[in-house]
Amino acid sequence: MEKFQFPKGFLWGGATAANQMEGGFNEGNKGLNIADVLPGGKERYDILMNPGFDFEIHTDQYSYPNHEAIDFYHRYKEDIALFAEMGFKAFRMSIAWTRIFPNGDEPEANKEGLAFYDRVFDELHKYGIEPVVTISHYEMPLHLVKEYGGWRNRQVVTFFEKYVHAVFNRYKNKVKYWMTFNEINSGLVMPIQGLGFSIQKEEDKYGPTFQAYHHQFVASAIAVKACHEIIPHSKIGCMILFAPVYSFDCNPENVMYALREEQLFNYFCADVQVRGEYPSFIKRYFKEHDIELEMEEGDLQLIKEGTADYIGFSYYMSRTEKKVKADSEAAEGNIIGGIRNPFLKTSDWGWEIDPEGLRISLNKLYDRYQKPLFVVENGLGAYDKVEEDGSINDDYRIDYLREHIRAMGEAIEDGVELMGYTSWGCIDMVSMSSGEFSKRYGFIYVDKHDDGSGTLERKRKKSFFWYKDVIGTNGEEI
Question: How far apart are the C-alpha atoms of 62 and 429, rounded to whole Å?
């Protein structure tokens, strides 16, 4: 078996999000956020993809699994001990904005929320695990959504600036690696979570979406500059959802269509955050969709000065496109659309599995930006079965991860500068897209189910021991 040479100090670990694992949604003076009002089950995807969501909690109609999640809020010591047992070098997590500023616009930060993350970071450092912290991960304060209209409103930039200053100053001696907005480009298909508003049926989606993006780009640049000033030894990156777009065939019209789709989805946000300027291709897009952004004097200079140190990205699937497609060709289940790729298998949830696409993605990103890359999400959502003896034999997950790690090794051989790999959902938690517990990603099984039942007991899966060996050999044994 071929062995790969991963860099010394490579950041092996796992990735999570506060809104999907913490629970304690109304404890510690935490305020409500977007995730707290999203129901579990099939309704969630419809809400995310369709207009008109009211951002209210309807307990008579829906369940809300994020409210308790897997109770990391009370069980973080137990979970971090398990991460340490696997040998994690890094743990990607997020800070819940509403634990720090419950409504988002308070004059002072919430002491209970600040103290909670102090305890989490201290526990990680006890085991030598480096926190990799996402500042905003799909959990915008609900008050900023309802009262200000989300990121469409320029005032939110000021609130975000106060938030980042609070966390940078508090954790400057505890956190070295940061990222600004999780999967920032996902707002192009799911604006609720990333941009904090729902497109209304009568509303033109283009103007509000790109205006909100401009405000996030300004906020991200402010965060980058503040991080460098307050924590000089820090690294702060952007974070995108990357899915390489393949043309269905060699018809030049389909090739051009695939290129345009890839430019808009994969590169637009990264170009602004990494290169520090709006890309040339977006100017034509704005012209064709009659988009005029409102900017303040100094915005473009600020964006130029506040570029990311590295590119964090999630990779789950590729996407295949052609200009004219029939409904029968749709890649159902592929959350970002496209048509079926006949060369790829799919997961239990219909996501196309394409390890070679990760190598392609790494090469494309590094060729374009020449900045360090960090795979901060990648994993397989699947149904897991607990055997009578208590074991969970998730060989399918091992196979999936092995092939993706092999693709990273090939990319490193290609010359890509790769900082680390944090597998998504290293412990089972609530699915972002479907709000289900049954869609499991973890090396650690959590006894919690879609009907709300379960003891929350943690169990090591077969993949737990496999990943421990991967980390222990720095990727030589996969």
Answer: 18
Closest CA to 241 of 309, 300, 187: 187
Residue 397: its H or E element: helix 395-414
Model confidence, pTM: 0.97
CATH class of residue range 11-472: alpha beta
Looking at the predicted structure, is the pLDDT value of residue 292 above 60? yes
Domains of the chain, residue spans: 11-472
Q: 17-37 burial by CB neighbour count: b if 16+ within 10 A, else e?
A: bbbbbbbbbeebebbbbbbbb
Cβ–Cβ < 8 Å for 236, 173: no
Q: How far, in Å, CA of 263 to CA of 186, rounded?
A: 14
The H-assigned helical ranges of 108-203 are 111-126, 142-148, 155-171, 191-195
| Residue 119: closest CA among 108, 107, 104, 131 | 131
Which residue in this structure is represented by tokens 């290129």? 259
User: Where do runs of H (alpha helix) occur along 129-272?
Assistant: 142-148, 155-171, 191-195, 206-230, 252-262, 268-270
d(C-alpha 291, C-alpha 284), whole Å: 10
* Residue 114 in tokens: 């600040």
Alpha carbons 397 and 461: distance in angstroms, whole number: 10
By the 10 Å C-beta count (0-12 exposed, 13-18 middle, 19+ buried), 281 is classed as middle
pLDDT at position 199, please?
Answer: 80
pLDDT in tens, 168-200: 999 999 999 999 999 999 999 889 999 999 887
d(CA 236, CA 179): 5
Residue 1 confidence (pLDDT) above 70: no
CB 470 within 8 A of CB 477: yes
Residues with catalytic annotation?
377
Q: Quote the distance between the C-alpha of residue 375 and its chain's center.
A: 10
Classify strands 11-15 and 245-247 as parallel, antiparallel or unpaired. Answer: unpaired
Rg value, the chain, Cα: 21
Q: Per residue in 198-224, pLDDT tens?
A: 887 667 778 999 999 999 999 999 999
- Residue 330 zone, left/alpha/beta (φ > 0; ψ -120 to 50; rest): beta
Amino acid at site 302: L
Q: Considering only CA atoms, which of 241, 78, 93 is closest in space to residue 167?
A: 93
> What are the phi and psi torsion angles at 323 (to 5°)?
-65, -45
What's the CA gap between 467 and 392, in Å, rounded?
14
For residue range 395-428, list pLDDT tens digits in order.
Answer: 999 999 999 999 999 999 999 999 999 999 999 9
